[in-house]
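Consider today's protein:

***
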Amino acid sequence: MNPTIKKLGYIPEAIMINVPNAFFEHDGKIVGDRELAFRRYYEWMGTARDKEGEGSFYHFISSVPAVETITTVYVCFKGYVQYKAILVKFMKNEPVDLPDYKHPARDWCVTTGPVVKAPEGMVKKGFRGFQYTRELF
């Protein structure tokens, strides 16, 4: 049995990740309210508006989980669980080379939709890395 599963006492199907406030404060290509732009894009992934079906988001992650049963990613920021997204894949020490974004090798968590908004008031204080969890909603 996987030591992480043994320690947790259950087989996790999800992880929680935290988008740091610095992401929303960063000066970059996005002009205007970065949080609003992030929310629009995130909620668009995997919907009819995603005409090419390629909507995905590459999240920095501290390390790739050791458990292979993960299918769901809960995205937290601003002190709350905000979204439930579908895991596309984890990337271990790989570069990202997209038409509009390039980044040197690191670990990534790639998510897509359709995304489900969290119920109001699901408090989750900021944290680093990721946390295994059961299904929340």
User: Anything to note?
Assistant: The two ends are 27 Å apart (CA to CA). The longest strand covers residues 80-98.
